[in-house]
Write a structure and sequence with these properties.
By secondary structure, the protein is α+β, with helices and mostly antiparallel strands. About 20% of the residues lie in helices and about 25% in strands. The protein contains 9 helices and 21 strands. The strands form 5 sheets. Strands 1, 2, 3, 4, 5, 6, 8, 19 and 21 form a 9-stranded mixed beta sheet that branches. Strands 13-12-16-17 form a 4-stranded antiparallel beta sheet. Strands 7-9-10 form a 3-stranded mixed beta sheet. The longest helix has 14 residues. It binds fe (ii) ion (FE2). Fe (ii) ion binds next to loops. Keywords: Dioxygenase, Iron, Metal-binding, Oxidoreductase.
Length: about 400
């Protein structure tokens, strides 16, 4: 049977014109047992469409690891390292991650108590909640009415020492049923988004770039982000803004001397725009929570200076300024009409191009709502490619 693709089911909130290329459901192929030829086609489809959905999938952890690794055969360790180091124990990511003993590159994530699962006698899982991460929270009364928030928009990446995974695979094994929730942005815009319970929400990094006005496109194509050392430890005491798209600047980040041992040579500096290996498109890929500094190149020769931001380049180290600039560039792309909130069914497998989208956990479960997912991503064997000199010329 040939590989067939169909559009993803979009919610009424989504603007279909902005999702023409985004996301496909793939049918007629078993993602756990792909031939080399089928894999090549899936790989091309993933980079072209950013997210692929397979329904009614049976997938062992071994198969999931093999599928994930096929996108980057030289990659080996889990995207955040081996989970055993001092830095990960203090990290804000630590409580969310449990490892499948047989296949430590595959993580068990979800909510509630899970028993006798793939060699784990029992695991207590906790769906991350905005109430422990955001500076402000939805009141318990409003939570009871079904209001919630995006938790944290991000790229799956250690952002220190390791390179961002190319692909993340998410396999829904146990999916609790429940009423839809309403994401409140709580940023003065009045924006709201109705979402399925426990959705994973995605936005396109390509769209994030495309909808920017020319002066911000020019800034984006000329900029690199330097991430903090051990960013998840660094940001642990700090609190996020109400859209989950970055951190409030209150000086709460850990000072360098209180971080686990680090070296500047292992800090990561990435271009703001990452080049898609198949389409050549530029995707705006910044993890706003971990960003510490912005390095802006001057305008190239011959570019129009009028109205340009930082025409002579800049090295911006003021955290508030860095975050304000990133927020200005990223917030438009998380507008309700640009978000794809996946409506999880049991045995859904979603592959997403981690270097082409941003995503977030959403919503809140009650302790008895059991959710079990397998997640796999692998620190890549290379860093993402940035804009070419032609891209800079085109957009700067
Ligand atoms: Fe993630």
């Amino acid at each position: 049977m040939a590989i067939e693709v169909a559009a993803l089911p979009l919610p009424p909130s989504a603007d279909p014109s902005k999702f023409a290329d985004f996301g496909r459901e793939v049918k007629g192929v078993n993602p756990g047992t792909l031939t080399q030829e089928q894999f090549k086609e899936i790989e091309r489809l993933l980079y072209k469409h950013s997210a692929l959905l397979f329904r009614d999938v049976d997938l062992t952890p071994e198969q999931q690891y093999a599928l994930t690794k096929a996108f980057d055969p030289a990659s080996e360790s889990y995207g955040h390292g081996n989970n055993k180091t001092e830095s990960t124990k203090k990290s804000i990511l630590h409580p969310d991650l449990k490892t499948i003993p047989r296949v430590p590159q595959v993580q068990l994530i979800g909510n509630g108590m899970v028993y006798d699962h793939e060699g784990l006698a029992e695991a207590k899982l906790k769906h991350p909640s905005h109430t422990t991460f955001h500076k402000t929270r939805v009141s318990p009364e409003d939570e009871e009415k079904g209001y919630t928030r995006f938790y944290r928009w991000h790229i799956d990446a250690a952002l220190y020492d390791l390179s961002p995974p190319k692909v993340t695979t998410l396999y829904g094994i146990t999916v609790p049923k429940g009423p839809a929730q309403v994401v409140r942005y709580d940023d003065g815009t009045g924006d709201e988004l109705s979402v399925p319970l426990g959705t994973t929400a995605f936005v396109s990094g390509k769209t994030m770039f495309e909808i920017l006005p020319p002066e911000l496109k020019s800034l984006a194509v000329r900029s690199k982000v330097k991430y903090a050392p051990h960013p998840y430890v660094w940001m642990a005491p700090a609190r996020a803004n109400s859209t989950g798209l970055g951190i409030e600047t209150e000086g709460l980040e850990l000072p360098p001397e209180e971080l686990p041992p680090w070296e500047e040579s292992r800090q990561k500096t990435f271009p703001v725009l990452w080049k898609n290996p198949v389409t050549g498109d530029s995707h705006f890929e910044v993890h706003p929570c971990g960003a510490a500094e912005l390095l802006v190149d001057p305008l190239p020769e011959g570019a129009k200076r009028e109205g340009a931001l930082y025409p002579d380049g800049a090295h911006i180290t003021d955290l508030g300024e860095v975050r304000a600039l990133l927020y200005k560039m990223q917030r438009p792309a998380i507008a309700p009409s640009l978000v794809y909130p996946h409506d999880w069914h049991e045995r859904d497998l979603v592959l997403f191009h981690n270097r082409g989208v941003l995503h977030t956990v959403v919503g809140a479960f009650k302790p008895d709502q059991v959710r079990a997912f397998h997640q796999c991503n692998l620190a890549a064997s290379d860093d993402p490619a940035g804009p070419t000199p032609e891209d800079v010329k085109k957009w700067a």
